[in-house]
Amino acid sequence: MGNCSASLQIEDKMQKQLESRLQELKAEFKKGQTRLQDLEKQVIALRNNLLRISGAIQVLEEELIRTGNLSGNRLEKLDSSKVSVANHNNKPAVNRLGQTQDFTQEKDQQTNT
Fold this sequence. Notes:
The protein is mainly alpha-helical. It has one domain (about 1-110). The chain is built from two helices and two strands, in the order H-E-E-H. Residues about 85-90 and about 105-110 have low confidence and may be disordered.
């Protein structure tokens, strides 16, 4: 009968350890989910910022071309394959001049050339 009691104590101890570890893992998982959500928000904010910057660059380049005020250097085109700024719903962006700019198509064209 002493053997049975010792066995039950071991099982009870293991059960408590398993429950404790489960709670630790659940807490760690929840922290991970929260961190992932924060990072996803940062990615969205960065993409939006890059989209605004690329639009401003395009407007300035077009204005320099329009006025003929280009210096001896050629204007450097943005490499959209390095920075993807397409919005999350894959719709083309519209710049300040009302022109449609689809970064995903530009990326595909640059890749094929």
